[in-house]
Amino acid sequence: MVGDVMEGNxxxxxxxxxxxxxxxxxxxxxxxxxxxxxxxxxxRPSFDDILSVALQGLPGNNVETLQRTEMTLHGRDAExxxxxxxxxxxxxxxxxxxxxxxDELAIYSIALRATPDDVDxxxxxFRKIVATWRPSDEPSAVPAKxxxxxxxxxxxxxxxxxxxAR
Length: 166
Known about the structure:
This protein has about 170 residues and is mainly β. Helices cover about 15% and strands about 35% of the residues. It has helices at about 45-55, 120-130, and strands spanning about 5, 10-15, 25-35, 60-75, 75-85, 95-100, 105-115. It has a seven-stranded antiparallel beta sheet with strand order 1-2-3-7-6-5-4, with helices on one face. A hairpin with a 2-residue loop joins strand 4 and strand 5.
């Protein structure tokens, strides 16, 4: 793990990449943004509206959309967006492929950030990672803990029996 993002609502992961400065590592970021309740009398913003705002927040100059694909992932709306941009601080080029997943109460994002030279080699693995996402209302893959055993019932009071008459 490289660090967290979005005030603890996400994580950045990257394997060590010998010979590269850490700021130039290819990485994957996973995050979630809870959607606020819409104001009374108003509808929730559309998935497309939410994505437009998210894409405006990319950390680069000269952002160019290379691909934008709508899809359904496990019954939920999703969109895969691939962009190229120049880092605002270093001017270095990056390609980012971001999957946005609409989980009704939250938007999940999984992003691959790679150099233009590395992105093609990482794309297949990234798409396999995206395919593992499951909606939050599906049963957990982790089995539930068994319930604690109930205390045994106290012995029933049985009225004394009278010995048979002889």
